[in-house]
Every structure is written in structure tokens, then in C-alpha cells.
Design brief:
With about 160 residues, this protein is mainly beta. It has strands spanning about 1-5, 10-15, 20-25, 50-55, 60-65, 75-80, 85-90, 95-100, 105-115, 120-130, 135-145, 145-155.
Length: about 160
């Protein structure tokens, strides 16, 4: 870190983190300068990498890697157009979580926010829950030689086709 000083201003440079690398302080008429032995500046932790560990029709389990820098906890959320779940976890807790009570075949965004208590950094991943099984499956007609005709209702949640 570099410090340059004159009677009119002080420039502090060489700080790590986001934003500018220097700030200029200019005394005003009513400003009193005090000597500071130590100045601690906390930068935001690095973003974590978020992993999809598993998914079902009604749940999603995510995990995340370690952030560099000081991390005191994580804020987890899962959102879509109709719902939002959020919780706070300490950095000492398991680095995975299972969100439950989700809708089948729906799109969600999972956010893992690293926090040092003062600053935060966000990482996210998009995921779709598994669509539900087709409903009301009925045997319509059976040809004893080689064919079966079946009908069914739509599956719960979004789906693109049936095989």
C-alpha cells in the first residue's frame, strides 16, 4: 500500500478489492486530522462455485465450494415466478442444503451469497425440478397381435414430450 501526503491532501493506493485503487482525502475548514495506527478494510469474499447435487419432482439439493477471504456465513435462496425460500447458514455448517416443497417441472434459481458480515458476493445456478408422472393412464384398446393403445393426462409441471 502506498501513501502520499501533502498539506492539502492524502492519497492512499494499492488496496485490493473492487473499486478504485486510491482515494484522495482533502481537509476542509472544520476537519480535524487524527493519527491512525491501523486501518482495516474488509473486502468481499470471493464467489463460490454452486453444484447441483440432486433433484426430484419436489426438491433440489445444492452444494458449494469454499470462498476465499473471510466468510462468516452464507445466505441461501431459491426463487421462481411464484415462490421464494431463504435461509442463513453459518460458515461452520455443512456446505450443502436441500430445498423441499417445490413444484414439479418448474424452473428455479438458487443463489448462494457469501458474507463476511459487512460485504457479500453472490453466485447462482438455474435448475428445473423433474416433471411429475403422466396422470390418468388408461388402456384404450389392445390388439392381441402386436399393438396396445394407451391414453394419459398431462404430467404435473412443465414437460416437453412423452416417450
Amino acid at each position: 500500500m502506498g501513501v502520499a501526503s501533502s498539506s492539502r491532501s492524502t492519497v492512499i493506493g494499492g488496496l485490493e478489492g473492487s473499486g478504485s485503487t486510491g482515494s484522495e482525502l482533502t481537509p476542509s475548514q472544520n476537519m480535524v486530522w487524527k493519527a491512525v495506527d491501523e486501518l482495516t478494510i474488509h473486502t468481499a469474499p470471493s464467489p463460490v462455485e454452486v453444484f447441483i447435487l440432486s433433484k426430484t419432482t419436489s426438491s433440489v439439493t445444492v452444494g458449494w465450494g469454499q470462498a476465499s477471504g473471510e466468510v462468516k456465513g452464507f445466505i441461501l435462496s431459491i426463487t421462481n415466478q411464484t415462490s421464494n425460500q431463504q435461509l442463513n447458514l453459518s460458515a461452520q455448517e455443512t456446505w450443502s442444503y436441500r430445498f423441499e416443497g417445490l413444484s414439479p417441472g418448474s424452473h428455479y434459481t438458487v443463489d448462494v451469497i457469501s458474507s463476511n458480515g459487512e460485504r457479500t458476493t453472490n453466485a447462482s445456478v438455474d435448475i428445473n425440478t423433474i416433471p411429475g408422472a403422466p396422470q390418468e393412464v388408461l388402456l384404450v384398446e389392445e390388439d392381441v397381435t402386436s399393438s396396445v393403445f394407451v391414453s394419459w393426462g398431462a404430467a404435473a409441471g412443465g414437460w416437453r414430450g412423452t416417450r
